[in-house]
Every structure is written in structure tokens, then in C-alpha cells.
Amino acid sequence: MELRDIEIFLALAEELHFGRTAELLHVSPARVSQAIKKQERAIGAELFVRTSRNVRLTPVGERLRDELAAGYRQIQEAIAGAAAAARCVSGVVRIGFASPWCGDLVVKAADVFRQRHPACEVQIIERLLADRFGPLRTRELDLQLTELPAEEPDIVVGPILFREPRALMMSVDHPLARNQTVSIEDYGDCVVIGVASVPDYFRDFHLPLRTPSGRPITHGRLAASFQEAQSLIGADKGVQPSTVRAALYHARPDIVFVPFRDAPTVDYGVTWLTDGDSVKIHAFTQALLDVASGK
User: Fold this and answer.
1) In angstroms, rounded to a whole number, what is the distance separating the alpha carbons of residues 57 and 70?
2) What domains sit in the chain, N to C, each tagged with a CATH number?
């Protein structure tokens, strides 16, 4: 007798009504009837007496109910115990970030995570954008909240947590510094400071080689950190795209952040190694999602 057939038999023995049993188990009344007939054929005796008015157990059916019920409860308890063990999150989870606004979200999510999983320690680690996936690949991190895209064969990209409007960082002496907004086309009149050691797909998405009309964009020096980029920008050595929110965290008297009116947002998501998938990672990702959505 299959487990589903046992479940149908026990439910009918409790309800003594084919329609209610079918509704309880989310199956059709015909499925209930077929299962009972199959069991009766296998046993060689009727399990239920069916009339137009009611359904009742036969003596054989009563015995089967009593003997199956205890075993079925044990099966349910075993399954529930296995599920609880799978949900148990323990050990250490290490999460990295680069941008301070990502750090704010990670810290808040860590508080939520600790409440849900007190047996698991959280370690928060800042890392450089220029070494995007190095700490993941060396197992220093379990997951990280990072700027997208992340098109790596050994990296899993989880859900996008939030999107930030883009701004162009420039010196206060730059010709565009007094504009209310800038356009992607304005790159053609600028020298763009790049980010060191990022893959081509990331550079092309955030630091294009041409404007939408096809004008070449001049690329200048590469910066290994945000602070190095800001030093170059403050000295009017070039511009670099960032986010509008960055002005709240990285304000300097020699730099302005001018919003784009036509650039795509900067999206942030969770990443982890393909072979590093774990319950801990999904549990922390859920905490990040809940905090980001205000739950």
C-alpha cells in the first residue's frame, strides 16, 4: 500500500465522507474511491460499508485503521523531524559588501538573521570592488552583496535586492558640474576613470566605450578603490559613474554628484559560489530580502 493510499484511507476513516475527504486532501472524490477499491482488492475484504446515507468502517476496516494510524504518525514525525533538521542553521555565515549602503543593509539583515537563527554566527566583511569574487573563490566569504552584473560560470546570482539611480561623479570645476542632470551622451565630452581588475562585461555595462550615438568615450586612469577614484576626480582628472545615494556617504567639497536622466539603475544582488550553496546562504538571503522590502 502506497503512502498516499494510506493517507486517503485514514482520512476517510476519520471523515466517513468521500466528498469531505477529497476536499481535505485536495484530490477528486473519484481518486478517493479508486484508492479504497484498490486497497480492498489487495486485502480481499471490504473496508467500508457504503450506503446512500452514510459511510462506516467494517470490522476489518476498523482493525486496519487502528494498526495503520500509529505507524503513519511515526512516518509524519520522522518527516517533520528531518525538515526541522534541514531548517536548523548553525555554524558561521560570512557575508561581504563593498558599498556602505550595502553595508547598512547587511548589518540590519544580520540582526534579523540572528533572531531567527541564534545558533549561527554572522561575520560581516568589507571587500574591494576591484577584487569582486576573490574572497568567495578563496572561501573567505560565503556570500556577498554586490553590484551587478555578475556573469561568472562558478557564481550564482540571487535576487536583486534594490536598485539605485545613477549619478556622475565629477570635480566641482568640471563643465557639467552646474547641470541639474547629465546624459549618457555627455560621456563623449569626458575622460572616464575606470575600475581596476573588473571583467570586461562589468566594465562595458558601467563604463561604456561609446555613447549611444557612437561617439568614442575616452578612458583615463584606473582606480583600485572608491577613495582613489575620488582623489583623481577631485583633481579634475576625469569622471566616474556612481549612484545618487553615494553623495550622502562620500560627500567632498571638491566633488559633485550629478544625476543621470537616461542611464540604467545600478542593481545590487546576492552572489555565492555554485558549489557553495547551503541552507545558511538561503536563510541569510531571505533576511536580506525581508529587510530590503521593509518586512
Assistant:
1) 18
2) 3-87 (1.10.10.10), 91-150+273-292 (3.40.190.10), 166-264 (3.40.190.10)
